[in-house]
Amino acid sequence: MGHVHVLDHPLIQHKLTYIRDKNTGTKEFRELVDEVAMLMAFEITRDLPVTEKTIETPVINTEAKVLAGKKIGLVPILRAGLGMVDGMRKLIPAARVGHVGLYRDPETLQPTEYYFKMPSDISERELIVIDPMLATGGSANDAISSLKKRGAKHIRLMCLVAAPEGIEVIQEAHPDVDIYLAALDEGLNEKGYIVPGLGDAGDRLFGTK
Ligand code: PRP
Ligand code: URA
């Protein structure tokens, strides 16, 4: 079964509190999501392999560590996942970015895929699927299944806030996928919103409500 990692660094928790606050406006919301994504990228890449190379410092030749060149792919789920991409790319600038477009029907809560575009070598990449919200788990489940169908082999899921219901769906359907969160919340309300959550992430990021 995939592990759930709750990244409870104080800076992440502090910023998440303001992201949750309904009085936080679109500009500040977007900036905070960007900052938290960058901090989460720092944690999620903790196990990347490093190798050594010889460099010359102003003092002496020495062996020093560099990333071993593992290929990373970021896969935001549209729309809301887009809000986390730039923050992650600040730390992982060489990452390629693929996109999965999914929207959740407000009545049935079922996701529908409307867009899919990936780098050609997804089977060789460590993919990080990004979405601020893991609610019923339907959207992330579909996105991960689509990636696997197209050959993806190594996938992690990164979300700001998750409900236990969504975690269960991913762990059941994709036991090979580790999940990285800023917070694990209480559950879902009757409309499928995460409680306490942060509301509609896409609308708050893009000012569409
Ligand atoms: C939201 C969110 C997730 C999904 C989570 O997207 O960004 O993708 O809902 O819900 P689930 O776990 O129950 O599937 P939404 O469908 O509202 O689209 P948007 O990002 O375009 O606003
Ligand atoms: N999608 C959101 O944007 N927010 C939720 O709480 C659940 C799904």
Bound molecules: 1-O-pyrophosphono-5-O-phosphono-alpha-D-ribofuranose, uracil
Topology order in helix (H) and strand (E) letters: EHHEEEHEEEEEHEHEEEH
Largest β-sheet summary: 9 strands, mixed
Give the strand content. 25-35%
- DSSP helix fraction: 25-40%
Protein topology:
Layout: E1 4-6, H1 10-20, H2 26-44, E2 50-56, E3 61-67, E4 72-78, H3 85-91, E5 96-97, E6 99-104, E7 111-117, E8 126-130, E9 133-134, H4 138-149, E10 154-162, H5 164-173, E11 178-184, E12 187-188, E13 194-195, H6 201-206
Parallel strand pairs: 1-11, 4-5, 4-6, 4-8, 8-10, 9-10, 10-11
Antiparallel strand pairs: 2-3, 6-7, 12-13
Helix pairs in contact: 1-2, 2-3
Bound molecules: 1-O-pyrophosphono-5-O-phosphono-alpha-D-ribofuranose (PRP) and uracil.
In words, what does this structure look like?
The protein is an alpha/beta fold. 31% of the residues lie in helices and 32% in strands. Strands 1, 4, 5, 6, 7, 8, 9, 10 and 11 form a nine-stranded mixed sheet that branches. A two-stranded antiparallel ribbon has the order 2-3. A two-stranded antiparallel sheet has the order 12-13. α3 links the parallel β4 and β5. α1 runs antiparallel to α2 and α2 crosses α3. The structure holds 1-O-pyrophosphono-5-O-phosphono-alpha-D-ribofuranose and uracil (URA). The site of uracil has 10 residues, from α6.
